[in-house]
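User: Can you recover a sequence for this backbone? Please restate the input before giving your answer.

Assistant: Of course. Working from this structure:
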């Protein structure tokens, strides 16, 4: 089963995919946000095209583990997605995934312009890898 992961941002939605039978998450092109209706339509089209039955969405908790404004915004997005798509939606704590992906790109000496286009997909890959590791452990 193909699984997609999302890193919800205000300007872009980072996307990563894990193909059936693999444990490797690969970043895809981000979805550039325009408005909620278009964002959801693009996402559902991608989920349908990839024949996904599960999408893993980063849960942007605060560093102390609390639900703040970003988590509430993500909750609203997930509720809207659940209303128009009947697959499984899994939430994964995404604390520090964007910072970790930025650090990885900095260490690889990727230019600022290229980092902007890559960081969201790498963050989504990290979210997906957490999910895949949890699945391997049976939970």
């Amino acid at each position: 089963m193909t699984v997609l992961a999302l890193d919800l941002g205000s300007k872009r939605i980072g996307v990563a995919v894990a193909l059936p039978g693999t444990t490797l998450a690969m970043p895809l092109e981000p979805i550039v946000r325009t408005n909620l209706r278009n964002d959801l339509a693009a996402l559902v089209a991608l989920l349908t095209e990839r024949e996904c039955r599960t999408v893993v969405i980063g849960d942007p908790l605060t560093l102390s583990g609390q639900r703040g404004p970003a988590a509430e915004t993500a909750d609203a997005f997930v509720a809207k997605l659940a209303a128009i798509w009947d697959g499984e939606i899994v939430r994964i704590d995404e604390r520090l995934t964007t910072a970790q992906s930025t650090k990885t790109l900095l260490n690889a000496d990727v230019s600022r312009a290229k980092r902007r286009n890559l960081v969201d997909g790498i963050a989504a890959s990290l979210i997906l890898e957490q999910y895949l590791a949890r699945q391997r452990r049976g939970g």
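That completes the design. The CA atoms of residues 5 and 138 lie 19 Å apart.
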